[in-house]
């Protein structure tokens, strides 16, 4: 037996621009039944899931990719927790909060993480899939009898549970709250821990400023502090790493783990696998079809949960949710394989001084077919280095003779323009992308085609990031410079973009510089690395390009963090602080993979 899911993307469905192919070619419609019709109110297609035979013809003929039809195992039908309306997203199963533990939620964007948060925090009453006649609390509690979640929902029904949520989009906080960081924390600090949190998160110099003046990273950490300072039973952190450098991410991790240590239930959604691994006691994997349906797996240990996700297969439930597994290559590419004279750009020692900040860049080069990774704390001059190489900023000493063409993807992206994605891509390409070779080489692998007709202002953070990366790579230049390409991408997209970028650079003899704070992504993508050191906001010093293993070792030492290889997936894993492996590796000076 199968259970049918038919989902329509209302934004992509444009009946005025198509020939209503879904209605015309539906075999059930041809037999005289009304399986797909035009809804009189919304003027959009509507699918009757009960009589749909799951043939998928409508999916293939829709010119705008607006329809998703999926056949699910019928036993899932009894596990439906919430559905928003006809032909819309539905969630199956729920993760269970655990007292005194951090539970990490790992999955693609669009799998229902925000639905999970809203249900577990009491902001949304689960309707068990009955959006037309939703059940009362006694029926919901009966459904959960004999499970750990029954107690949780009893507390929600009796208004005994309070939840503290750190939202994904922190800039909304600056728009909604007039005042300084100090005023925001004072408003929420029910536990009397504000001073400790401000120190732990490195916010001492940010608290007297208005929220509107703060950087994305400062705003993110203030939001973490505000959420952690409330006195509630349940804490939820949605992507707490965004905009923060690796040092700041470890501070965020300590604050979140501190809540579990005092017996609180904590859940975290995070796409930086290094941080999630470091943070979580357990993992629950969310899988399904983005924006169509999401299923929550059973609870797993952190190590097993992350490996299962990378494999795309849940052995205990015998479910394959992705057709390929993500693998990590042990060989760390060395710079020796590049030929003399293959430099795209060589730069001497560069210096740049501002009134309160200076940066010094040791000499180096970027070679053909190479990705140069740049790592270091925020506010040390990484973006300034990129701009000097690009000729956008003039150094005070040292000059770059060779004028090279460079395409730059900035850290912060503009999403307030009301134009279709395809016209942004056409402009970057200098020609129409539809049917072009570039479409096949860049836009197909990055899965951008289905966004063509969407307006830029309606894109999610992850979609916008992929369009920005694609727009950068479409330009005809010598060197691609990408500032934080991982921001807002989910784990699958991060790995896919990293692997694509590396392949693109090698196959076409291009060169790229990538700045990012996701250690796993940088380990995966870089051939050699520049490490920035110094004092944030005052003085930055960049090394010459180093072989990846030397650079990672040096950087991890500054973090007081050691990495090992997972024996199964070969991905880099953080050793738990003060564990036997951690002590062994540090004492031998080998912070990066004990081989």
Automatic annotation (TrEMBL):
<feature type="domain" description="ABC transporter">
    <location>
        <begin position="339"/>
        <end position="558"/>
    </location>
</feature>
<dbReference type="Pfam" id="PF00037">
    <property type="entry name" value="Fer4"/>
</dbReference>
<dbReference type="InterPro" id="IPR027417">
    <property type="entry name" value="P-loop_NTPase"/>
</dbReference>
<dbReference type="Pfam" id="PF04068">
    <property type="entry name" value="Fer4_RLI"/>
</dbReference>
<dbReference type="GO" id="GO:0016887">
    <property type="term" value="F:ATP hydrolysis activity"/>
</dbReference>
<dbReference type="GO" id="GO:0016491">
    <property type="term" value="F:oxidoreductase activity"/>
</dbReference>
<keyword id="KW-0067">ATP-binding</keyword>
<dbReference type="InterPro" id="IPR017896">
    <property type="entry name" value="4Fe4S_Fe-S-bd"/>
</dbReference>
<dbReference type="InterPro" id="IPR007209">
    <property type="entry name" value="RNaseL-inhib-like_metal-bd_dom"/>
</dbReference>
<dbReference type="InterPro" id="IPR003439">
    <property type="entry name" value="ABC_transporter-like_ATP-bd"/>
</dbReference>
<feature type="domain" description="ABC transporter">
    <location>
        <begin position="67"/>
        <end position="312"/>
    </location>
</feature>
<feature type="domain" description="4Fe-4S ferredoxin-type">
    <location>
        <begin position="43"/>
        <end position="72"/>
    </location>
</feature>
<dbReference type="InterPro" id="IPR013283">
    <property type="entry name" value="RLI1"/>
</dbReference>
<dbReference type="GO" id="GO:0005524">
    <property type="term" value="F:ATP binding"/>
</dbReference>
<dbReference type="InterPro" id="IPR017871">
    <property type="entry name" value="ABC_transporter-like_CS"/>
</dbReference>
<dbReference type="Pfam" id="PF00005">
    <property type="entry name" value="ABC_tran"/>
</dbReference>
<dbReference type="InterPro" id="IPR003593">
    <property type="entry name" value="AAA+_ATPase"/>
</dbReference>
<protein>
    <recommendedName>
        <fullName>Ribosome biogenesis/translation initiation ATPase RLI</fullName>
    </recommendedName>
</protein>
<dbReference type="InterPro" id="IPR017900">
    <property type="entry name" value="4Fe4S_Fe_S_CS"/>
</dbReference>
<keyword id="KW-0547">Nucleotide-binding</keyword>
